[in-house]
Design goal:
Length: 203
């Protein structure tokens, strides 16, 4: 499996943000997207996740355009956005169950255990702390078998212990042939990631 973007340009509200961006990702590979505030990191991740159309260029999964073959691509990626996607009235376990079902899974116990969420399983998401919300969102990864993780600021609000835990999960995902594209302002200290600095393609 291969994910690629070709000659990508992004425009937001009539403003060209970046152009001429190309890269490819294969099994076991990860890209760390960097850049100043407003460089277009979140926009790029949303384009990669098929949530935002590029101004120009293409995005392909297994050499098929994701915008024309969106059904086949849906199960292949897991996007965790900057804004949390939790439903505040649902409990932690109900939220994870919802996303597990979206990816065709019913077991959420591993996901709860992996992010140490069992004590919070019956807590409504609306009253979680920022770090607990982030852990619940990341637990959605453990409840899916998507090969491509697309993560916007995955460690913001996490304390040292959970940053280390996330890093371990990410490395395990890559070691198992998974792929990841993530944007963080913080260096996670992962040697094998490739860096993509959007300041270099910003307009
Ligand atoms: N929904 C939107 N409508 C119009 N413009 C937008 C929208 N979302 C983002 N932008 C603009 O697009 C540009 C890129 O924003 P984006 O959020 O992708 O940057 P970023 O690199 O992720 O920034 P940060 O480091 O601050 O999170 C910014 O100038 C922003 O104002």
């Amino acid at each position: 499996m291969r994910f690629s973007v070709q000659n990508l340009a992004c425009q937001r509200a009539d403003q060209l943000i970046f152009e001429g961006l190309s890269f490819a990702l294969g099994p076991g590979e990860a890209i760390w997207v960097q850049g100043r505030n407003g460089a277009g990191k979140s926009s790029l991740l949303r384009i990669c996740a098929g949530l935002l159309r590029p101004h120009a260029g293409g995005v392909a999964w297994a050499d098929e355009d994701i915008f024309t073959e969106s059904d086949r691509y849906q199960g292949a990626f897991h996007y965790v956005g900057h804004q949390d996607a939790l439903k505040p009235a649902l409990t932690v376990s109900e939220n994870i169950k919802f996303w597990a079902a979206y990816h065709g899974h019913s077991d959420i116990e591993t996901a709860l255990a992996e992010f140490e969420l069992a004590p919070l399983r019956d807590t409504p998401a609306g009253i979680l702390s920022q770090g607990q919300k982030k852990r619940t969102n990341l637990a959605r990864l453990a409840a899916s078998s998507a090969p491509l993780w697309i993560l916007d600021e995955p460690v913001s609000a996490l304390d040292k212990h959970f940053i280390a835990l996330f890093k371990e999960k990410l490395l395990r995902h890559l070691a198992g042939g998974g792929m990841a594209i993530f944007a963080t302002h913080q260096d996670l200290g992962i040697d094998q990631v490739r860096r993509l600095n959007l300041d270099e393609v910003a307009v």
